[in-house]
Amino acid sequence: MTEDAVPAGELYTDGFAADPYPTFARLRTERPVCPVSSPRFDSWLITRFDDARAALTDPRLSKDLYGPGQHYLRIFGPNSEGLNRNMLNSDPPEHTRLRRVVSQAFAPRRIEALRPRVAQVVDHLIDKMLPQGQAELMHDFAIPLPMTVICELLGVPPQDHDRVLDWTQVIRTSGSTRRPPQEERAAVQEAQLRLHHYFADLVRAKRDDPADDIIGALIDAVDRDGTLSEAELVTTTFLLVFAGHQTTADFLGNAVLALLTHPEQLELLRATPQLLPAAIEELLRFDGPLPVASPRIATEDVEYQGVCIPQGSIVGVAINAANHDPAHFTDPDRLDLRRVRGPHLGFGHGVHYCLGVSLARMEAQIALAALLRRLPGLRLGVPVEEVRRLPAASPFRGLLELPVTFAA
């Protein structure tokens, strides 16, 4: 990494975790393509909208982390292959083959059929919170909602939901505990190992007792024409569980916090509920759960904004920085639920565009509508500066806790 890299002290602090957008604005203006140092790995960061959109489809920026360079070792560590070698970390034609098998399960028509069940889960969670007049919204609502939905889609037995949730939360909250780093790494590796063994066992069990769920469909793809290998079947299951709940949970927390800290926008949405679909897009643009797209590798020297990114470099596309680019969004740091909808990068772009976009939008619409309707007087339970967030080094932007109060 070059000497002029943006140091970790600028990007991985509590202040940056609380509000990264002033730093992103400075980088967009002064260093739109720059090397950065981080506690996890060094990389290059792209922050302007046009560059970000181009980079997300640039074939020179490979997603294949498990190829000859074995770049996953720098990013995920030596124990990651059993869970992370999947379509997220692959290029066409491998990505095309893997995604095709799963995409039918997430077709908009099939997802729409889930609407009554999602509404039922939402109401059940709110029913449990209502008598208390207060809640920790991440633990009580935002996390269990998408976890329940994706586990049911996949066919994870109800009695196992909590175990799977606990293991994924160890990975999600890595870096936020007070344990020594070595103990933290060991805990994450243990959770990864347990998840791998669990999904491998679940696949074997479903092979013996087939079911009409996504894992059953994946097993059928393996047995019918070898579309997936056994190892790919397990890693795909893990990807769907993690991706299917993590970003939606973090989005819900971010969205509620944004509304509670912008009361005029909250009241606008209460008074004009038909704004909700557009509001979700604006909330995603305003403070999305994936600040930087998953890593890419430069397969050759690549130039953006006159800056050469050397071959072999890890490249991060700063989605949240791009979504605040004033060249594309008027007054981008203002939350405006009436904003004329333009293209944002919150769901990605290109062949890696979010597979679960229909499910995520539906869950968000039902969840936010129900919270606003059923929790009158919803407000923060602590001063906003006391809201605990995921650490800045996390690949996700989300909340550890969101205490709220409301009329019981």
Automatic annotation (TrEMBL):
Q: Which residues form the signal peptide?
A: none
Q: What is this protein called?
A: Cytochrome P450
User: What UniProt keywords are attached to this protein's entry?
Assistant: Antibiotic biosynthesis, Heme, Iron, Metal-binding, Monooxygenase, NADP, Oxidoreductase
Q: Which GO terms describe its biological process?
A: antibiotic biosynthetic process
Molecular function (GO) terms listed?
Answer: heme binding; iron ion binding; monooxygenase activity; oxidoreductase activity, acting on paired donors, with incorporation or reduction of molecular oxygen
- What superkingdom does the record give? Bacteria
Which pathway is recorded for this entry? Antibiotic biosynthesis; mycinamicin biosynthesis
> Which Pfam families would you find in this protein's record?
p450 (PF00067)
Q: Which family does it belong to?
A: Belongs to the cytochrome P450 family.
- The reply on keyword Translocase is no
